[in-house]
Amino acid sequence: MTVIDLFGGAGGWAQALAVLGVRDIGLEWDEWACRTRAAAGHLTVRTDVARYPVGPLIGRTTGLLASPPCQAWSRAGKRLGLIDQPLVHQAVADLSRGRDTREQLMPACRDERSLLAAEPMRYLHALHAAGQPEWVAMEEVPDVLPLWQQYAQVLRSWGFSVWAGILNAADYGVPQTRRRAILLASRTRSAVPPEPTHARVAEPATLFGPGRTRWVSMAQALDWGATDRPVPTVCAGGGPGGGPEPFPSGSRKALATSRDLGSWKHRLTLAPGARGSGRSWSLRSNSMARATVRRADEPAGTLFFGHRVNECVWVPGSAEENRSVEAIRITAREAGILQSFPADYPWQGTKSAQFQQIGNAVPPLLAAHLVAPHLGARVRQSDFGLAA
Fold it and tell me: What's the structural domain count of the chain?
């Protein structure tokens, strides 16, 4: 018996399961995502989820995970999935009755990726005949919630307990206020959302339950502001300590003054409140005029990548102190940490490919909270390299 991960991507669900002591089999088409999964030790079948036969999975599947590609629905793109939504609803309804009308519906879709959100129903219908899977967890951008509610109606008619709604990843210790439409279903237990562990403002324990920790900030997650480490040497042409990483934005100047060191704020470890420390910087989510900007002592906004305007950059938090410091693009390592991946997660491919993988992934820490009840497991924040 195994867990099948549709649209496995770079391994958000897989990483969560690995931490909880379970392995999944991911079905994924993108070459670089497959290479990242392989480098991380996650089992993967490189295939087109829309064409993969369900037959080999029947009788072997205990859990089904799905995070269909969000580009057709995301607010960071053209959102043609919203126009195609009636067609996707039709495909789900047909597939739930064993009728495959995808080929007839596809020509009418404005975005060919829209119908991928109906694919999980093809698998669910085939597996249902064998009394499987035992449980289901699916994740997508908030605008897909009506589709998840349609799935919920079908699954309930098949005997599942189902919950569908919107959850905020920051409420579960992820250093990012990433809101996602979630569907949870089970044949053996009541499907309910996991209890939040964090809140915008810390809440003390009461007679009615444990308290909640304050949202994890970017500075906490990236370990900025620690006082027990020396400030690394910054050398021209390389990263801290003369490492191989080039200066951002093509800059190749020697950094000598404390103000200059401030431009390496996220590469350095500086005392809290020090000039140029992490607390004086903010993360801007993209290059658009109304982009979300969050201070380093807050969680990040939703990380979007894969489009030219979706370039997350660090910007000076104080114009008076940092007039001469230019914006610095976030690194893949930093972006991965803000998605709750390990700092050493082996992202593969070009920088653009790495950022796209990160932006498309479900945060592993959120995923762990979603699947842990089905596995009889307990989630520990420290297992994901983040402070409790």
Answer: 2
